[in-house]
Amino acid sequence: MTKKSAVEIEDQAIGDASIPVDAGEQLEHEDVQKLGAVEVDVTPESQVIDAGAMDKELPEEEQVHTILESPDSLAQREKKRTKRQAVMPEGYTVEAGPWERIFQAMKRGYTLAALIVAIDYPDDKPAWMLTFRDYPDIRGVVPAGETDLPDQRLMSFFVGQPINVKIKGLDRENRLVACSRREAVAEARTRLYDEVEEGDQLKCFVKAVVPRSDRSPERLLLDIGGGVLVELKKSQAANMLSQRLSRQYIPGQSVMARVTRIEPNKGIVEVSLKDGDAWDKANIKRGQPISGTIGAIRSNDDGELCYIEPDGWPGLLGIAPLPDWDTFRRRMRVSCKVVNFVGAKHHLRLYIVRRLA
User: Fold this and answer.
1) Strand partners for 130
2) What DSSP character marks residue 316?
3) What's the DSSP call for residue 243?
């Protein structure tokens, strides 16, 4: 199969503008807000002019009638030949074919639901390959520039996940449609800014857990509605600071997030997965024995320090000197005693008593 670029696919859409329909009745109204469904108002197939037939010679007997009959008689004969059934039986329904519905979705700017099944490289550039639930024989293509992602290296994290797209072009020969997630998300973002206020609780989906790299720390990508993505640092997302985000979240997971800041004029929206400040809720006493997990070991002018997250107060991080009487490492559980705690200053000092299994 010859692969075409997104530009070629979009150009071919012009030639497909006269796609005939498979039925001769107007479709019933469908809920266009339901993803994957479109409202269709089509031209009956019988009304589409076959330009090629105009060049064909008439049969000999029809040529004779053509010479002898008046123009009015010819018009009546043509009307009888093209007349279609005006009244259909009870229970008769009309269903447009997939290409007709896809064309109407493109023409009217409807948003369709699709599933990312692979990444391909037409023209040596990455592009998402899509399938559509309602159109199993048609594949979609989303070029990297139409993904609405800040970095094309994130494209692989979305494989296997559903997205919303706008149809931009048709290629019936190769059964491909050019799609844009960018335009679908832009539409959703405008509506989101109009309806959401600071303090609102939003149902979100985890789209990706991006691992730590030389350029950036581990982070979470949340879909807060309509594909609008918000990036969260570990401190904003982690239930337990001593564990990786990948151990706490998986793509497709549903979570509730609170809107902490929204400025539509600046295109800013921020959310948090945490309900308030964990330090304000903690009631830790001096001298209290507690257990915890070592989240990190760092060196400073005072020597090596262990950063410990208490098991009973996830989200807090205490500091303890690294003992020299045993070997300790990250994610090891330990028993400690509280030296000092000041919640208002986010201050928790500990010392390690022993290792735990």
Assistant:
1) 116, 140
2) B
3) S
